[in-house]
Design goal:
Elements (H helix, E strand, L loop, with lengths): L9 E8 L3 E8 L4 E5 L4 H11 L2 E6 L5 H4 L2 H11 L4 E5 L9 E3 L4 E4 L4 E7 L8 E5 L2 E5 L2 E2 L2 E2 L7 H12 L6 E4 L4 H11 L4 H15 L7 E2 H7 L8 H11 L6 H13 L2
Parallel strand pairs: 3-4, 4-5, 5-6, 10-13
Antiparallel strand pairs: 1-2, 2-3, 7-8, 8-9, 9-10, 11-12, 13-14
Helix pairs in contact: 1-3, 5-6, 8-9
């Protein structure tokens, strides 16, 4: 699944939207073209396009929630007015307007204007049709994996979400994780409740606290970091299991049972 693209060729930057969303922008140093990931708000995207003198070429959508797709219609009209051809990539199993290509596990997205090819990964759990986009060391994972946490299970099952997270944890550790919400500090507060003696987690929490005190972004994370500090990727670990058992005052008989109860604990935290 590697296409060996040099990191320096691409610039990935966030556009802040709503309370805590990030709309990711992908640009190339050698091109004026722009790709957007999960543009829930068209207004902030158009402001970015015009400020930076970019041409919107493609939109990548991970799932159907309004804060991820709410800007599609206006951006589609904006590009029509500019006479810019616009490709809109969406999950196969979700009904999202203006899609030009519907995607599922094993498909690829070729973006020649910025010299990038993404592989599509199915990630059911948060929604049934949720997908991610992966290329070399870049991962856009929507609301499945967050730094220090994972998405709520709205449509899928705990087993589906657990499988999806395991799939992501198997990616190369250097992979940069671009999720779509600034949830890191809240997630780490919960993670420390579950795993209070984790030195890597304590160190990361202190870093994130300092960043947020200055209103700075905490992303991207990495697969390596998440495997070290994210309790939802560490349900096989004895310390996580024991913590969940202590909280619920009963034995966990499998990693999936530990994960399911950990997610329930977080839901009510």
């Amino acid at each position: 699944m590697n296409n060996q693209l040099p990191k320096a060729k691409h610039i990935i930057s966030p556009i802040k939207a709503f309370k805590d969303n990030y709309i990711w922008t992908i640009t190339s140093k050698s091109s004026e073209h722009l790709v957007l990931v999960d543009p829930g708000d068209a207004k902030v995207c158009i402001e970015y396009i015009e400020k930076h003198n970019k041409t919107l070429t493609a939109i990548l959508i991970t799932h159907h929630h309004a804060d991820h797709i709410g800007g599609i219609e206006e951006l589609h009209q904006y590009c029509q007015n500019k006479q810019w051809p616009l490709a809109i990539y969406t999950p196969l199993q979700e009904n999202i307007p203006f899609a030009t290509q519907k995607l599922q596990q094993g498909d690829t997205v070729e973006l020649p204007n910025i010299d990038l090819i993404f592989n599509v990964i199915d990630l059911p759990g948060h929604t049934l049709g949720h997908i991610a986009y992966y290329a070399d060391d870049i991962l856009f994972c929507g609301d499945t994996l967050f730094s220090g946490g994972c998405g709520r299970i709205f449509e899928g099952t705990p087993q589906q979400m657990h499988t999806s997270l395991n799939r992501l944890s198997e990616l190369p550790e250097r992979t940069r994780v671009y999720c779509t919400h600034e949830y890191t500090l809240a997630n780490l507060t919960f993670a420390l409740t579950v795993d209070p003696t984790n030195i890597e987690l304590i160190h990361y929490y202190n870093q994130v606290q300092a960043l947020r005190a200055e209103d700075k972004i905490t992303l991207p994370s990495s697969i390596l970091r998440e495997k070290q500090i994210n309790p939802f990727l560490r349900c096989h670990d004895e310390k996580i299991r024991e913590s969940v058992e202590e909280y619920f005052e009963r034995t966990m008989h499998s990693t999936l049972e530990t994960f399911t109860n950990l997610r329930g604990w977080k839901d009510n935290f």
